[in-house]
Amino acid sequence: MPSHVHLIFRSRSNEPQKLLQDFKRFTAKRLLSAIRENTQESRKQWILCMMGRLGRKIGQDYQFWQQHNKPIELWSVDVIDQTILLEV
After folding, report:
1. Residue 83 in contact with residue 51, Cβ under 8 Å?
2. SS3 11
3. Quick check: is 80 in a domain?
4. Which member of 17, 21, 50, 68 has the lowest number of beta carbons within 10 Å of its beta carbon?
5. pTM for the predicted model, two decimal places
6. Domain total in the chain
7. How far apart are CA 28 and CA 6, in angstroms?
């Protein structure tokens, strides 16, 4: 699926939700700026329109990432191997 991403990360502060929130906020702002500034992007208006429509549903200007997450705690090497193999 080209429309999603899997992240494997570790939160030093034991606050993975905060780390993910910060990551999503940072990347969404950067990607929105990149889309706006790219004069070669032929789908720019459509992308901004779709992101704007989704954002208005939740009271924001734009929405890039989905609101929900499906975190899986990777607590052992066996779980990591099993999870990675399931996704390939």
Report:
1. no
2. coil
3. yes
4. 68
5. 0.75
6. 1
7. 16
